[in-house]
């Protein structure tokens, strides 16, 4: 059937078309905008923008714009092209056909769902639109808004955690760097670490490329070993020769450091964390002290040698005097020589005396210099004397560790009683006893706090070294120490924050990542595991294109380039990651800008597939429902005709059954009477001889069965008509007791054990005679079809569910197989010939139950038994 297009409505003569148009334009509840296209000057045909001509009052209110805006469409909505709305306008104008478009516009200060309808009108384009903010939001939209709100809150919290972690790392008073991957590429370097190489670039470079001067110094091997084994390495006062000025000149720098493996959620090593601090000043101070001590020892040895030479000279002089007394004859000859020798001796004595005085002055100077160095050293230094470890010397830096305490001249346990039994005191004793130097890094020592006397946790790095006397025996302990409490607490806070950030991002159902300027992943949370079936750590330094695939990458390439250009990007896209894995996503790219340079961006991806599919399904279902409604109208008419026909047919069948059962009663009664008359008329010898008697008996039995069948048909006819019998609240226990009396002879004959558990069963809303018939049929069947090889046990129990009352009749009789169960409730169906019956009882039971809105089920196994479950309505609730 075709429908001709309707002709335009004829307006009354008194209603001018122009006035009608203006009136509709002004009072319309939907927004109306009239545009003129802007063409590309180069070709004059390509539409590059639209200018506003007029907005109706509804559009002015919904868009917060004037009646005649001076901006163009793309100037008003810069993201219109990205969201597809600009192309929609162009398509509607070029084709000249009506076009519609649904959009969730979340850019340029707008955040609403819009339905747009557009059509070319003369030289311009008329657009009608609705805004969901002007009407109640749907449940789907409200849920989506709540989801977006939660995402924004989570994103803000994640960003705050990231900034806090970044601040802690960058402000830490130690050199911190993070290396990732097998090549140990620098991903994070704090300012103190960067100072080690000046202006040289470290971030993004592998270790061996960034530090070429460390080749052969053993550091590469240590770090690679930590990455390979996951075992932490501690370095103490290890020297590294560094090119700190990038001039090619290497200088020694001493470090205490920790190389510790970083792991992902699966406990796999992903990189190495470097935590180091420069101890060059402490090492150089200690070396200088050792050098000065060596010089003093050398000078003492030289003075001892000088004294020995003077003693030898005195002996020579004494021998010479004896020779003079013994050799007076030679006095004249040797007098000159003796005078010369005395002069030489006096000169040598004078020279040695001056040398000794000079050495003594140098020793005193060196001692004062050492004392100055000791007292001014930046490290905390003290000397403990004797087995009781008495403070013999304490420099100011050491004294500052314990303000307000008197240390000099006191045993260490008297000056610092809180370290009794602590590791630090135990190692002091061990160093004094063994002479083996002991070092500790970040050792926790609870010390009494000045002022309130409370114990306070403090951390120290220190070296305990034995001191030897001139005989080579240990007479004290030399201590070099410095407090690292702030560094340790900063590191602990940093580690806790980093762990908290990792746990937080892993717990979020949002994909969170960091992409650098090379479009490579530098961070990915646990959600990436589900989507890409890869450990997030394996994604690091991998190009985005390789992970997403060429097709999906093509959908977001433009957005990625905008994000790396420093633009905050929000968009939705359909992402065909794999042939069997397509997702609809809502994504935000948040630029990471430092000193005006974009280092990368944070990516937050939310799966909105369910919302999109639901929206599409709703639209598809609406279309299908419209078509189905039309079909249903036709089908309902057909069904109405069919139902009327079936109703007439059922009435005819009921009338036939009733008429047949009624009309057959008289003929069968006549046949029965004739058979009895025939038996009486036949001679006695004929009745007893041959087959006449047995034949008559069988004929009478057949008549009885026929009469019973007619009776059953009558009952079935009544049951068919009784679709809504009168119901009453019936006590199931009373019904069972009544039926039990009727079946008492059969119960006694079979020796059956009957167990009844219905005391707590509520009243059943059901026709009383029908309920009695149900119980009677089920119980009599259990008695009839009992197993001959075991005592019969029958159980009747009742229980309730949320909406039903369930009666169970269970026996341990013959049972039936599954193929027979399917035909159990059909009319005249029997499976055991050794028991009399018509095969109509269970059919009637099923009909009575279903007519009352219930159902009956059977569960049976041959040789085990059968259970019938009858479900009645609980009060007026419907049957499930």
Automatic annotation (TrEMBL):
Residues annotated as domain Histidine kinase: 659-876
Keyword presence, Kinase: yes
E.C. number: 2.7.13.3
Alphabetical list of Gene3D superfamilies matching this protein: 1.10.287.130, Histidine kinase-like ATPase, C-terminal domain, PAS domain
NCBIfam families (UniProt xref): sensory_box (TIGR00229)
SMART domains attached to this UniProt entry: HATPase_c, HisKA, PAS
CDD domains from the UniProt entry: HisKA (cd00082)
Top-level taxon of origin: Bacteria
Record's protein name: histidine kinase
Swiss-Prot/TrEMBL keywords: Coiled coil, Kinase, Phosphoprotein, Transferase
InterPro entries: HATPase_C_sf (IPR036890), HATPase_dom (IPR003594), His_kinase_dom (IPR005467), HisK_dim/P_dom (IPR003661), HisK_dim/P_sf (IPR036097), PAS (IPR000014), PAS-like_dom_sf (IPR035965), PAS_4 (IPR013656)
Catalytic reactions on record: ATP + protein L-histidine = ADP + protein N-phospho-L-histidine
Pfam families attached to this UniProt entry: HATPase_c (PF02518), PAS_4 (PF08448)
Coiled-coil annotated residue ranges, if any: 282-362, 611-649
């Amino acid at each position: 059937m075709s429908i001709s297009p309707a002709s335009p409505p004829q307006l009354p003569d008194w209603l001018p078309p122009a006035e009608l148009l203006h009136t509709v334009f002004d009072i319309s509840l939907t927004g109306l905008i009239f545009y003129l296209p802007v063409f590309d000057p180069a070709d004059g045909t390509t539409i590059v923008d639209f200018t506003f001509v007029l907005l109706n009052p509804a559009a002015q209110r919904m868009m917060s714009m004037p009646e005649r805006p001076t901006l163009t469409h793309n100037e008003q909505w810069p993201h219109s092209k990205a969201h597809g709305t600009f192309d929609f306008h162009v398509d509607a104008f070029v084709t000249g056909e009506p076009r519609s478009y649904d959009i969730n516009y979340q850019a340029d200060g707008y955040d609403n769902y819009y339905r747009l309808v557009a059509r070319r009108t003369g030289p311009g384009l008329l657009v009608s639109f609705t805004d969901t903010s002007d009407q109640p939001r749907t449940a789907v939209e409200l849920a989506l808004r709540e989801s977006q709100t939660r995402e924004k809150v989570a994103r803000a919290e994640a960003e705050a955690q990231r900034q806090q972690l970044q601040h802690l790392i960058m402000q830490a008073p130690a050199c911190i760097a993070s290396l990732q991957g097998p090549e140990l590429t620098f991903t994070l370097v704090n300012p103190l670490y960067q100072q080690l190489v000046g202006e040289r670039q470290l971030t993004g470079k592998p270790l061996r490329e960034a530090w070429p001067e460390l080749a052969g110094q053993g550091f590469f091997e240590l770090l690679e070993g930590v990455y390979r084994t996951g075992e932490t390495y501690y370095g103490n006062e290890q020297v590294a020769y560094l090119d700190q000025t990038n001039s090619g000149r290497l200088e020694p720098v001493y470090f205490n450091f920790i190389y510790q493996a970083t792991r992902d959620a699966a406990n796999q090593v992903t990189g190495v964390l470097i935590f180091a601090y420069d101890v060059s000043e402490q090492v150089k101070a200690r070396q200088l002290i050792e050098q000065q001590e060596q010089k003093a020892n050398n000078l003492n040895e030289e003075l001892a040698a000088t004294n020995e030479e003077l003693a030898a000279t005195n002996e020579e002089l004494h021998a010479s005097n004896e020779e003079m007394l013994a050799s007076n004859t030679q006095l004249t000859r040797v007098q000159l020589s003796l005078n010369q020798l005395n002069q030489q001796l006096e000169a040598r004595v004078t020279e040695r005396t001056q040398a000794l005085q000079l050495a003594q002055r140098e020793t005193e100077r060196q001692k004062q210099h050492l004392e100055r160095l000791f007292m001014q050293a930046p490290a905390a230094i003290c000397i403990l004397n004797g087995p009781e470890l008495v403070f013999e010397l304490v420099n100011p830096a050491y004294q500052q560790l314990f303000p307000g305490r008197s240390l000099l001249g006191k045993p260490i346990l008297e000056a610092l009683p809180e370290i009794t039994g602590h590791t630090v005191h135990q190692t002091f004793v061990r160093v004094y006893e063994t002479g083996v130097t002991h070092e500790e890094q970040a050792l926790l020592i609870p010390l009494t706090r000045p002022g309130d006397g409370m114990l306070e946790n403090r951390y120290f790095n220190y070296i305990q070294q034995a001191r030897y006397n001139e005989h080579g025996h240990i007479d004290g302990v030399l201590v070099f120490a410095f407090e690292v409490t702030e560094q340790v607490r900063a590191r602990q806070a940093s580690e806790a924050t980093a762990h908290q950030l990792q746990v937080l991002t892993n717990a979020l159902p949002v994909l969170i990542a960091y992409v650098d300027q090379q479009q490579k992943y530098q961070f990915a949370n646990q959600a990436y595991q589900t989507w890409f079936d890869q450990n997030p750590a394996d994604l690091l330094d991998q190009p985005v294109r390789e992970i997403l695939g060429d097709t999906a990458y093509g959908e977001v390439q433009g957005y990625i380039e905008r994000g790396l250009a420093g633009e905050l990007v929000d968009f939705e896209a359909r992402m065909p990651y794999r042939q069997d894995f397509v997702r609809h996503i809502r994504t935000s790219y948040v630029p990471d800008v430092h000193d005006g340079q974009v280092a990368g961006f944070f990516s937050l991806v939310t799966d909105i597939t369910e919302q999109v599919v639901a929206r599409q399904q709703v639209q598809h279902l609406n279309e299908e429902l419209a078509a189905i409604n039309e079909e249903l109208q036709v089908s309902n008419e057909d069904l109405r005709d069919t139902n009327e026909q079936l109703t007439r047919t059922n009435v005819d069948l009921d009338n036939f059954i009733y008429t047949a059962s009624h009309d057959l009663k008289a003929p069968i009664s006549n046949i029965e009477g004739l058979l009895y008359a025939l038996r009486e008329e036949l001679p006695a010898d004929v009745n007893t001889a041959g087959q006449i008697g047995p034949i008559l008996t069988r004929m009478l039995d057949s008549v009885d069965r026929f009469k019973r069948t007619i009776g059953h048909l009558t009952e079935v006819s009544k049951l068919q008509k009784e679709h809504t019998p009168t119901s009453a609240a019936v006590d199931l226990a009373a019904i069972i007791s009544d039926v039990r009396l009727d079946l008492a002879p059969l119960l006694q004959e079979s020796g059956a054990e009957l167990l009844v558990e219905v005391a707590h069963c509520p009243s059943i809303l059901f026709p009383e005679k029908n309920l009695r018939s149900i119980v009677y049929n089920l119980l009599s069947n259990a008695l009839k079809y009992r197993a001959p090889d075991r005592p019969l046990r029958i159980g009747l129990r009742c229980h309730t569910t949320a909406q039903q009352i369930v009666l169970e009749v269970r026996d341990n009789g013959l049972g039936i197989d599954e193929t027979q169960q399917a035909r159990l409730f059909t009319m005249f169906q029997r499976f055991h010939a050794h028991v009399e019956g018509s095969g109509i009882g269970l059919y009637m039971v099923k009909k009575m139950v279903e007519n009352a809105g219930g159902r009956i089920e059977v569960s049976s196994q041959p040789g085990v038994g059968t259970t019938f479950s009858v479900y009645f309505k609980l009060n007026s609730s419907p049957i499930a």
